[in-house]
Amino acid sequence: MNRFVYLDNNGTTRMDPEVKKAVDEAENLYGNASSMHELGRDAEALIEKARKQVSRLIGCEQGKIVFTSGASESNNTVLNIFRDRIDDKVDGRDRIIVSAIEHPSIIETVKYLKSRGYKIDLCPVDHVGKVKMDELRKLMGKDVALVSVMTGNNEIGTIQPVAEIAALAHSYGAYMHTDATQAIGKIPVEMEKWGVDYLSCSGHKFYGPKGEGVLAFGKGVPFTPFMHGGHQEQGYRAGTYNTPDIVGLGVAAELAQKNLKEEHDKLWHLREMLREGLVAAIPDVVVNGPTEEKDILPGTLDMSFPCAEGESILLYLDLDGIEVSTGSACASGSLEPSYVLLACGIDVELAHGSIRFSFGRYNTEEDVRYVIEKLPPIIARLRKMSTRKLHK
After folding, report:
1. Catalytic (active-site) positions
2. For the chain, which residues score pLDDT lower than 50?
């Protein structure tokens, strides 16, 4: 192994040194933030500072910010709220709509709800992963309680028209939720401007600590606690505050807001450098997802390599010190083709041969050149061993 290149930043990111320093310093402030003594009050002050830092990043100045264990908990909390409302027959609304390419924490939860008799509709997407607005309009009705569509897809990077979807949902009296996990720190996220009622994100996707996330929600929207117990978070979520990681999340949010334009431009440059290099060096490759900069998260590049299995590509790259993912990182361990690519109408064989390269703050042009050097011979070797042949 000549070097190490980490290109799985959509899976998780390395903690920023400033964030790590803030977390380490906050470890010394061990008082329970719910306590009334001085150490508790000091911890509470730091938590409230972090809350303001996050609210500025996501454009939620008027709503509420609740700290959670991550976007998966936040997503489950929102769906739980509407499960309860359906059970209580509130407003006679008993249907939930989500896009077909949501994160597994949404997809698997609605599968479970559907198995228990709840009415769930999956809105289809087009060949680049954009929600088909005409199909969504057909699905809408006065019985819809919630529409949930992610801001940017974790696998192919497609950015959705969240504001347009929110306006459509509201026109039918439904609420709107977006999982903005992958978008934070890459594109502007403006919850209140978009008209979003609920927003989820995770700190570890933008160089913050793992196990710390956010659920933001607007004024006057329904809320039912997912975790019951103490009076923390004004009764919205029970559990002793993880003060150090919340502090780290706040610092990560501040850095993400400060460096947004610079990081966007850098990630797009590296992504395009790799795309152009691999298309030139490897015959018969397919780039999945949108091609226009405005339609895709800047650091995400998903490519399919016909006649080469994604798992084999990943393992060979790993031997050369290059870390990538195949399919969805949260679904790793499964040999099933990516449900995201299948939903886009991608051929099963191409879906099996997909690799996601996701760039981050610490990647360089040298990293890109190294991948362009190492990947073409790997693909050539795998295609030579394959029983399938490229179509001429």
Report:
1. 330
2. none
